[in-house]
TrEMBL record:
InterPro entries: Glyco_trans_1, Glyco_trans_4-like_N. Pfam families: Glyco_transf_4 (PF13439), Glycos_transf_1 (PF00534). This is Glycosyltransferase family 4 protein. Residues 121-143 have a biased composition (Basic and acidic residues). GO terms for molecular function: glycosyltransferase activity. Residues 264-423 form the Glycosyl transferase family domain. CDD domains: GT4_MtfB-like. Keywords: Glycosyltransferase, Transferase. It comes from Candidatus Frankia alpina. Residues 113-153 are annotated as: Disordered. The keyword Metal-binding does not apply. GO terms for biological process: lipopolysaccharide biosynthetic process.
Length: 458
């Protein structure tokens, strides 16, 4: 079985948690497939695609529209899609039209194997020069090429008219690929105010498309399955909860950990609180900062790791608004997996005060290091953490501060949470997620199962 896996999120300005999911799952799928299975990465038209090159995954092959145009076309149910595969997996709500159309790939599978990837021949057919050949690194039109100026109106007309017809003709002898979509959370429906208005509308639109056209929808937790089912008409037999995992690179502490800690300016081991999330409103950073001002706060500094998302949040500005001086809060931004392993391994407590989550991967990553965790009572976080974390209500800074004080002041509790967390984290692996996902592919694609785990939550 051959799977076309969309890796576009890896090339986004802020890949975030869905980028991590895309990279880890695709790599694990390539590692855990049966003989004859293969995973091919696909992305929008652009020149720089190294960030989407994954071990064991062929490609990425490029579709004939840049990201913004591709998202617009797909939101209207038209445009290019991966071809020559049995299953297409969209790991975000950027999903192709039902059934797919001609691939418009800028490099064929053969060219990818040879390392050239520039022939303009798709996996299935010769389709000529791609629009991607004329794009600069940002994905904008690059002006002129050897073939003359790029004309976006022509590309749009081709996406709407030529590609579907040509794709139907080319794929007549091959069944249309099945479509699997991952919906990571129900935030666009339950907490739309935590997204941009455009983002909330777009995600709801694409969620509705997934409900209509996907052969299977993956969610990371049973909590998300219940929330999604309340807002989208997805039959239970098409909704599958498959958990996530912890990357080995995030668990393995590098031998130069002390030098990395010094370079990052980390406090002594166990001497700081940690928040790990893309900086955006729903992650609850303001609750964590407010907790530092409570009378029972134990006085540990807060270290924040994560790229800036949207909403204009700035850690230092928010800290100052809460009356905290610079010594209490440190932000590291987006860091490497090796640095993240060091930061996690030396944290005293991880705080996960999100208003809503789909899985809460940082919770499992911290638990894998034996770091005690305090979560909000967002349903997915409670499900993932089980009894291995303390819980504070969403937005309840007093409860969050009290939980931290309990952990810091009680070595017995600290040890219990550390041990329980390590045990809990072992239930979540990318290999298990990949095996459950292969089982799902075979179910929707009509192929017999071959030594794979039973479908269900990993």
């Amino acid at each position: 079985m051959r799977v076309g896996f969309l890796v576009e999120q890896l090339l986004a300005p802020v890949p975030g948690g869905t980028g991590r999911y895309s990279a880890e799952l695709a790599t694990a799928l390539a590692r855990r497939g049966a003989p004859g299975d293969g995973v091919v990465g696909w992305c929008a038209a652009r020149r720089g695609v190294d960030a989407a090159s994954l071990p064991g995954v062929l490609g990425p092959l490029r579709l004939g529209l840049p990201r913004r145009a591709l998202a617009t076309a797909w939101s209207r149910g038209v445009g290019p899609a991966p071809t020559g595969v049995d299953v297409i997996h969209a790991p975000t709500l950027l999903l192709p039209p039902a059934g797919g159309t001609v691939g418009w790939a800028t490099g064929s599978l053969v060219d990818t194997l040879r390392g050239s990837g520039r022939s303009g021949i798709s996996d299935r057919s010769e389709s000529g020069r791609s629009a991607a050949d004329h794009r600069d690194e940002s994905g904008r039109d690059g002006g002129r090429s050897a073939g003359g100026p790029v004309r976006p109106p022509f590309a749009e007309w081709a996406a709407h008219s030529v590609a579907p017809a040509l794709g139907d003709a080319l794929d007549r002898r091959r069944p249309r690929p099945k479509l699997v979509v991952t919906i990571h959370d129900a935030v666009p429906w339950t907490h739309p105010e935590t997204l941009t208005p455009h983002g909330a509308r777009w995600h709801r639109l694409m969620g509705e498309r997934a409900a209509r056209h996907a052969d299977a929808v993956i969610v990371p937790t049973l909590a998300v399955a219940a929330e999604v089912a309340r807002h989208l008409p997805i039959p239970p037999e098409r909704l599958h909860a498959i958990g996530e995992g912890v990357a080995e690179a995030v668990v393995r502490v590098p031998p130069d950990a002390d030098a990395r800690a010094a370079r990052l300016g980390l406090p002594p081991p166990g001497g700081y609180l940690l928040t790990l999330a893309t900086l955006e409103p729903r992650k609850g950073l303001n609750t964590a900062l407010a907790a530092l001002r409570r009378p029972d706060d134990p006085g540990l500094p807060l270290v924040h790791v994560g790229a800036v998302g949207w909403g204009g949040l700035d850690v230092r500005t928010e800290a100052a608004w809460h009356g905290l001086d610079g010594s209490r809060v440190r932000t590291l931004g987006r860091i490497s997996d090796e640095d993240l392993a060091v930061v996690l391994s030396r944290a005293g407590v991880l705080l996960a005060p999100s208003r809503s989550e789909g899985f809460g991967l940082p919770v499992v990553e911290a638990m894998a290091h034996g770091v005690p965790v305090v979560i909000s009572d967002a349903p997915a976080l409670v499900e993932v953490a089980g009894d291995a974390a303390l819980v504070a209500g969403v937005g309840d800074a007093a409860a969050l501060s009290a939980a931290v004080a309990r952990i810091v002041g009680d070595p017995v509790l600290r040890g219990r949470l550390s041990a329980a967390g390590r045990t809990r984290a072992q239930a979540f692996t990318w290999n298990a997620a990949a095996e459950a996902t292969w089982a799902l592919y075979r179910r929707v694609g009509g192929s017999p199962a071959v030594s794979v785990a039973a479908d269900g939550r990993a």
